[in-house]
Amino acid sequence: MLRQFFAYYRPWMGLFWLDFGCAVVSGLLELAFPLAVRVFIDRLLPQGDLALTVLAAVVLLAIYLVNTGLMAIVTYWGHKLGINIETEMRARAFDHLQRLSWRWYDTQRTGRLVARVTRDLEEIGEVAHHGPEDLFIAIMTFLGAFALMVAIHPGLATLTAVIVPVTVALVIVYGGRMTDTWRSIFSRLGDFNVRLEENVGGIRVVQAFANEDHERDLFSRDNANYRRAKLDAYRIMAASISINYMAMRGIQVIVMVSGAWLVLRGEMTTGGFVAFLLLAGVFVRPLEKIAAVIETYPKGIAGFRRYLDLLATEPDVTDAPAARPAPRLTGAVRYEGVGFGYDPSRPVLRDLDFEVRPGETLAFVGPSGAGKTTALALLPRFYEPTAGRITVDGIPVTDLTLDSLRRQIGIVSQDVFLFGGTLRDNIAYGRLDASEDQIREAADLARLGPMIDAMPHGLDTVVGERGVTLSGGQKQRVAIARVFLKNPPILILDEATSALDTETEREIQAALDRLAQGRTTLIIAHRLATIRHADRIAVVADGRIAELGSHAELAAKGGLYARLAAA
Ligand code: ADP
Ligand code: MG
């Protein structure tokens, strides 16, 4: 896993080495300062030359100044390295999300996904910056300080080193527990985001059912769980930080007392003593840093694991290795013995057979839950059939690239999704490079013209999140306008079941009729008007085509269709 992590550094090696180099020099200067103080006290001070002392002070100041500059560079460029890596990871995560299949999304909760792309990656970026380099510098100054302390007084240096096992023990005791706690916090945070996202998204339903109190109870449970997980983390953090602090300050006192004793016995110079005290500070500080890295590391690793899991999730539906772009299709569609089930043990479609000629309209009718929507979702390959095959213009859809196939199928589904933007953006979603005139024309064809003219900002009117400011019929027409712009040879229409008023229904019907002209149209019909318009009608029952024929034929037959039509 670490190798996968370091692979993200590769494009930024220049930045890495710049940052790293500055940090190394900064660490060395940190070590040089105590030595300079020693020379100052032991050699310069006894000479009683004030000018020389001032000069020495200037040199010390210069050392600090250089270090200040280096620290600024390390802080900025180091974080830049982190954010570069974070940005790259976020882009990859988003890119991957674009390709994952409906089957996967069916099982996901939005809030959790959002958390992965935001929070997780932020934590990883933090580790990317503070991880390897901080650890190296910490170890370097730690060992360097120890070597210099040994040079000044080996015995005292050894005494100081007793701090090390204490800190290591702390890390061992608390490190693992911290990892577990962070994993739990992440998971709670996910619950939390999911709850929030669903509540806000469904607030109109919540209020319509006056279920605010119920929602608040659910939310407080997640809120309390999150709090508990965080408190666990803080408890561990408090114990490890305070024990660490105690150990470090304790060692300082021990060094001070023993050092003073050595100075009094003449075994150590005053300058050596002061330098040793300063070095002891440089020696113990990296331990804090190492502990800090160990503290942030689990967070980043937990996030990085989830990130890798996401990237490792393969889309169910992908381009076959030999897939080729579809030519412009005439729109012949054929289902041959198609079987499918969301859950393999519960088939939704069995042995579905039908054929549609280019330009023909085939209406699907049948009881709710019969599998009509599912059957048509297989054509653009949102799901993969478990048996049989589907061809367009005689080519199996699996032989075509997903992109080129889906570009030639227009879909108006039951619940239209609009993006929170302007009407123009939402219509132009059908063809991103559409000109103003083309957008306007598509809007007119979809019978949106009068509505747009009546709106204060016309096409620039903002439709609100998911198009909440539009009526159901208006949203349908935006969806139709999108497909006019897209201009595909094949149409899939899933009629809204919700009752539209007669006027709106007629408008939408007229727009759909216009849209269907010259295109192969597969329509799931709920309205008699639509069914009459169809060339042929397929009655779907229990995952099969039960009856197929024209309205007149089926009505005369007196079967399932005749009964449905009568009802
Ligand atoms: P229809 O459009 O004819 O009303 P659907 O194709 O929507 O029927 O549904 C057929 C069956 O598949 C139903 O039993 C439904 O519960 C189930 N189903 C639909 N969508 C999914 C899904 N995404 N995951 C699991 N089961 C589903
Ligand atoms: Mg349906």
UniProtKB/TrEMBL annotation:
Keywords, alphabetical: ATP-binding, Membrane, Nucleotide-binding, Transmembrane, Transmembrane helix, Transport
Superkingdom per UniProt: Bacteria
Topology relative to the membrane: Multi-pass membrane protein
Residue ranges annotated for the ABC transmembrane type-1 domain, each copy included: 17-299
CC per GO annotation: plasma membrane
Transmembrane residue ranges: 12-33, 53-77, 135-152, 158-176, 236-264
SUPFAM superfamilies, alphabetized: ABC transporter transmembrane region, P-loop containing nucleoside triphosphate hydrolases
Residue ranges of coiled coil: none
Location of this chain's protein in the cell: Cell membrane
Any Pfam family hit: ABC_tran
Domain spans labelled ABC transporter: 333-567
Gene Ontology molecular functions: ABC-type oligopeptide transporter activity; ATP binding; ATP hydrolysis activity
Protein name (database record): ABC transporter ATP-binding protein
Organism, as annotated: Rubellimicrobium rubrum
